Predict the structure of Selection and upkeep of intraepithelial T-cells protein 1-like.
Amino acid sequence: MAALISLSLWCIWLSILILLSAASKDPNPITAKPGENVTLRCQAPNNNILVVEWRKADLKEEYVLLYRDGHLYPDDQLLSFKNRVDLQDRQMKDGDVSLILKNVTINDTGTYECRVFMRGANRRKRANLDGDPSNILYLSVDPP
Ligand SMILES: *[C@@H]1O[C@H](CO)[C@@H](O)[C@H](O)[C@H]1NC(C)=O
Ligand SMILES: *[C@@H]1O[C@H](CO)[C@@H](O)[C@H](O)[C@H]1NC(C)=O
Ligand SMILES: *[C@@H]1O[C@H](CO)[C@@H](O)[C@H](O)[C@H]1NC(C)=O
């Protein structure tokens, strides 16, 4: 029994250590307070953009924001982000596909992934992720 408890304590410690090291290794941490608007930056090489996908790592089955071929797709968007997100520049001039997230809550804390598919990138290139830039950002919303 005691062995079982110490084993589970050890497992908890290990997962905390793994989580801490994952968080500290993150290259782009962004911090905010509840109610603030944040900009999650992402840059494509130019505005020859076919698809922009913004996802949250723990909610991958739907999108934070999906843009394809000139349109936004609110039906494929997570409910919790509806009416709270927009592209910083709808024209995506100079390839700026940054996301504005308004009125953040502590539940928005997490890892966000930006993925861009450029027009004309052929399949071989795509397999190499060449011409399909992506960016991973970590957002931390702290209680006030
Ligand atoms: C967030 O953006 C909205 C709309 O763009 C604006 O009305 C509001 O004042 C902004 N909030 C903050 C805290 O800047
Ligand atoms: C911001 O979100 C909170 C709840 O998360 C809500 O009560 C409040 O009305 C929202 N503010 C704006 C300006 O949308
Ligand atoms: C965060 O999510 C929990 C569980 O879904 C919910 O009960 C809570 O109201 C949310 N908090 C805010 C600030 O939106």
In short: The chain is about 20% helix and 30% strand.
